[in-house]
Amino acid sequence: MKLNIGFFLGSKLGRGNNYSILTKNVAKWLNQSKHNVVFGGTESGIMRDLVVNLNRKELKVTAIITKSLMKEHNECSYFNELILVEDLKKRTEQFLLRSDVFLALPGGIGTLFEVVEIFNKRVLGETSKKLFIINDFNYWNPLKNLLEHMIKENFLDKKTVLKNIEFINFCEVKERLDDVQNSG
Question: Which residue of 6, 14, 112, 146 pairs with 38 in a disulfide if CB–CB is 3.0 to 4.6 A?
Answer without folding.
Answer: 6
